[in-house]
Design goal:
six-stranded mixed sheet, 18% strand, DExx_box_DNA_helicase_dom_sf, globular, binds adenosine-5'-triphosphate, alpha/beta, 23 strands
């Protein structure tokens, strides 16, 4: 039920009267703030007010506010608290509330928000709290921030009531409402808008709740580089974002969140802004190559990177070697990976080094003579790049590493987090280590070997990143509903998962499932029928189109589907352009673009191939399918198209 303007005025008036009656001596600002917050209790929020509110300032917050938008400790003060005072307030709030349980999870300390309301808002703070003016209070109730449902709100409030000695619970009702029943919150207490929004984002409760194991990783102190691994959907990124918040509150230096994929940091930036709006400008979210370009530009180093031209140079070089290397393996991409990922990606500097190198993860065994042939291809490619004045992506990493080796960062980061690290090259890892520098809590690497979609072949120790005793493994899958998880497990053919450092990791098979239900469907038919089948599924989707993605292995496989969807009037957005914004469009893209993301529904388009593929390619494809399937939360459709 939405309150009419009249009812809203009445609620406001009741709130003002109640505040006047309960706290007669309050000054103008606290009175107005309290009345404004109190009015929201008519819409399902819970309010606890300090007994001595308005008198001498005490250690704790003036008000605790709990609702669909999260848990807030609110202080009303003309002056902004300094760092020590803010820390004391936060400690008090965390001491009282964190650890309140909800099923398998508990209220996270980093999920409690400190808000200071003063005469002026928007003032820059020390990152411990959000500073708002009275007129900015509606920000706390914004629709896109709602992520707890009424049961969760009720459950936290009930537990909070027992822990908040010295606080009084106040509420007002909308006109014509029955008194609130004790126990479960009446659904009518939430406006329709709020119910809808909270239900649309049921998975976002990670903003407030964490599994105790996740929580432990958020706050643990590491006296060197640390690593979080674990199967898909176990909250590795969620933990990394909470940890960034935790670390940012303890420092005044900037922090960096980076991945290999270009758009992923932007999506996670949006999540972080919701988790920690007061720290939004302290953490830089950017992909590794963009960071490197920015850094080189800052140092006045000009680079010329052009993907199309780089590919052309490789193809030109390949021509001269096709005959001999093609006899070993006809696909030029195999050799391009060898140059990109093995020779350049691992920083091999001489033929002698290459001859000695164990090419872990590559299917073809190469003897010394064959390696010499590959080396010749690499050299031709390098020469062509040089002649054209071009740099490829590996060159950028090398240039940045050299530059940083000569002169460190002007403003070092307090912490660097790298996500999806399984797809970063070894040289990229080394660079990350240099960017982060040495010291406790400075470098956190997050990834899952089972989701590697590019050939890697390294171990963290190869990059000089020792993580002994600082490797965390998460095991509870929170993303995929049980049926989707079960389907995805069929791609978990790996006998052994690497934990990124040569030890045995946890496979998807072993993940515990946190969400029941879910739906999966399969389709198989001729290629020509695929677009129509897809359109039909999209029309009958059980979830909103804007929360759905179509995923394939290669972009060219998606063109016909995209055309058919557009012709059917379905708005479509390529994943390359997706930044986490809610837009009502169907997302479409390759598995490389989809990794790290999730959608309520995922439609995977697979093209059955009959060509012979080697073990390495088969394993890679299995991992890609695993990534595609585990992007789906509630619904997964798997379409296999067969060529005639
Ligand atoms: N504590 C939690 N409470 C509720 N939901 C959670 C929690 N942790 C994770 N999730 C849900 O699981 C989803 C996956 O989390 P996240 O992206 O962090 O996993 P991941 O391990 O990084 O996954 P992947 O490796 O597949 O990219 C989140 O979007 C969120 O919906």
């Amino acid at each position: 039920m939405n309150l009419s303007a009249h009812a809203r005025r009445q609620v406001q008036q009741r709130a003002t009267e109640l505040v006047g009656g309960e706290f007669p001596g309050l000054g103008a600002l606290p009175r107005q703030v309290l009345a404004a917050l109190l009015a929201h209790t008519a819409a399902g929020w819970r309010l606890f007010v300090r007994e001595g509110f308005g008198g001498a300032r005490e250690a704790g917050a003036d008000v605790f506010l709990i609702g669909p938008g999260g848990v807030f400790a609110v202080v009303v003060d003309e002056r902004l608290p300094d760092l020590d005072a803010a820390r004391a307030l936060m400690r008090h709030a965390q001491h009282r509330l964190s650890g309140i349980g909800y099923g398998l999870r508990t209220l996270a300390g980093s999920g409690i928000h400190l808000v200071v309301v003063g005469p002026n808002g928007g003032r820059s703070t020390n990152g411990m709290y959000l500073s708002l003016a009275l007129t900015e209070l509606p920000r706390l109730f914004r629709r896109d921030a709602l992520h707890l449902d009424r049961r969760q709100v009720e459950s936290i409030s009930e537990a909070a009531a027992g822990r908040l000695a010295g606080y009084r619970r106040l509420s007002v009702r909308a006109p014509g409402r029955e008194p609130e029943p004790t126990g479960l919150l009446d659904v009518r207490e939430l406006t329709e808008d709020q119910v809808a929004a909270a239900q649309q984002r049921p998975f976002d409760s990670w903003l407030t709740f964490l599994h105790p194991h996740q929580q432990a990783v958020v706050t643990r102190r590491y006296n060197g580089p640390a690593r979080i691994s674990g199967p898909a959907g176990t909250g590795k990124t969620v933990v990394a974002l909470h940890r960034l918040r935790h670390l940012a509150r303890r420092s005044t230096d900037p922090l960096l969140f980076t991945t290999f994929v270009r758009t992923l940091p932007l999506v996670h930036q949006r999540s972080f802004e919701r988790l920690a709006p007061e720290l939004a400008d302290r953490v830089e979210f950017t992909n590794l190559h963009a960071w490197v370009r920015g850094f080189l530009a800052q140092r006045g180093i000009h680079v010329n990177v052009h993907s199309g031209q780089i590919r052309t140079q490789f193809n030109l070089a390949w021509r001269g070697h096709r005959e001999v290397l093609g006899a070993l393996e006809p696909r030029p991409e195999y050799w391009r990976d060898e140059v990109d990922r093995v020779i350049k990606g691992r920083g091999v500097e001489s033929l002698a080094d290459y001859l000695r190198l164990s090419r872990r993860g590559r299917s073809l065994r190469l003897d010394a003579n064959q390696k010499r042939l590959v080396w010749a291809l690499y050299q031709d490619y390098e020469k062509l790049l040089q002649d054209k004045g071009l740099h490829d992506h590996n060159d950028l990493i090398t240039l940045a590493a050299q530059e940083l080796g000569g002169k460190g960062l002007e403003r070092p980061y307090a912490a660097v987090v790298a996500d999806e690290v399984q797809d970063i090259s070894l040289q990229g890892l080394r660079l990350l280590r240099t960017i982060a520098g040495d010291g406790p809590d400075r470098l956190l690497l997050v990834g899952d070997g089972q989701q590697q979609v590019y050939p890697g072949g390294w171990r963290l120790s190869d990059a000089g990143i020792p993580i002994q005793g600082r490797g965390e493994v998460l095991r509870v899958n929170y993303r995929n509903r049980a049926e989707v998880l079960e389907f995805a497990r069929r791609f978990d053919a790996t006998n052994q998962v690497d934990d990124l450092d040569g030890a045995v990791g946890i496979a998807l098979q072993e993940a515990e499932s946190a969400n029941s239900g879910g739906r999966t469907e399969s389709w198989r038919g001729p290629v020509a029928d695929l677009p129509a089948a897809l359109v039909e599924v999209v029309r009958g989707l059980p979830v909103p189109v804007g929360r759905t993605a179509v995923i394939a292995l290669h972009r060219r496989e998606l063109e016909a589907c995209r055309d058919a969807l557009r012709a059917a009037g379905v708005p479509v957005l390529w994943l390359e352009d997706y930044t986490g914004q809610e837009d009502g469009k169907l997302k479409i893209g390759t598995v490389h673009r989809a990794k790290g993301l999730d959608f309520q529904a995922v439609l995977v388009v697979q093209f059955a191939r009959h060509e012979a593929v080697d073990e390495e390619a088969r394993e890679l494809r299995g991992r890609q399918h695993l990534v595609a399937a585990t992007r789906a939360r509630d619904y997964l459709w798997w379409g296999t198209a067969e060529s005639a």
